[in-house]
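User: Hey, my collaborator sent me this sequence without any context and asked if I could get a structure. I don't really work with proteins. Can you help?
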Amino acid sequence: MSRDSFYCILYLIGDHSVFHNNSPKPQVAVFVQLAVALDRFGHEGNGACLDRSMLLWGISHGSMVNYTNRVMIALESCMGHEIAWPDRQGRATIAEHFAALGFPGCVGLVDGTLVKLSQRPRDDGETYFNRKSNYSLNVQVICDQHKRVIYFFDGMPGSCHDLTCLWWSGLWRRLDSAQLFDRGQFLLGDSGYVPLERLVCSYKRTGGDMDKVSFNTCIAHARVGNEHCIGILKARWHSLKEIRTQLRNARENAYIIRWIRCCIILHNFLIWRNDEWSDEDHPIELERDADIRPPPEGIRDVNRRGIQRRQEVQALCLEINRRPSGLLSR
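Assistant: No problem. I've predicted the 3D structure and written it out in C-alpha cell form, which is a compact way to encode the shape of the chain:
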C-alpha cells in the first residue's frame, strides 16, 4: 500500500465516532490505530501473533485488539460501499469486456477460496476440516474484469462444496432478480458448480468431445481474472492465509467474517486507486486445484434450463474464439 493510499483511508475513516469517546483520557491518534490494524491484516502465522505486534509497536495486547476492532467498525461504516453489485450500466460494461473473450452477457466470475483457521473450531470442528487437511472457512468470491470483488459470501465450513456455499448465500435466492441480472446475463464458474440459467460453468467431464474441451479452455482463459483477484487479495492481506482467531461461538464467527470483509474492502479500494500490485516484487499464489467432490444431492441438476443455457453460450463462445483473432485460432 502506498503512503497516499494510507492517508486517503485515514481521511475517510478518521472522523468516525468510534475513535472519539467521552473519557477524559483521549484515544491514541487514529493513524496509529489504522497502522496497527493494517499490520495485523497483512501478516500470517507467527507474524500475526500479538506478541510480535506488541514488541513492534510497544502496545499491549488489549490495546491492539481494541485498535483493530475500531478500525474494522470504521471501515465497514465509511467504506462498506466498496463492495457493491454493479448497476445496469456497470453490468453492461462488464459484459462488454467478456464479450470480447467469447462470453457476451457475463457480468462476473465466481469461485470459492478457503481461508485457513489456525485452530479447530470448538463446535462441529470436523465440518471445517477440508480436502487440504486443515480447518478453514469457504468463501465465495464474485469479481469483475478489474479484479474488484462485487459480492462475497463467507462463514460456511471449509468442507462444504462450493455449490453448497453459493446455495446458502443471499445471491442464490435472487438469481432471478431483475435488479441483479438483465436478460441474458450470467456468472461464469468452474466445474465445481452446476449449470444454471444465471450460472454458466465448465464441464466436469468432456468425454473426449473436442467442442467441450475447447469450451473449457475458453472458460479457463476468461476465469484467470478471478484466480488473480483471490491471489492478490491473499497476497496483500496475508492474514487471509491463516486467521489466528478462535472460533467458539457466533460472536467470534461474526468477528472473523468482519475481518475478511474489511480485507476485501481494502482490496477493492486499492484497485480503485490504481495502487498497483507488482507480481515481480510480491508473487501471488494461484489456487488452481478445483473442488473435485461431486455436488450434494438435491442441488445437482437443479435446472435443466441451465444445461440448455450452457449449450447456447458454448455455441456462441466457440464461434467467437474460432475467428482469426480468437483464442482457439492461435
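In plain terms: The two ends are 38 Å apart (CA to CA). You can pass these C-alpha cells on to your collaborator as they are.
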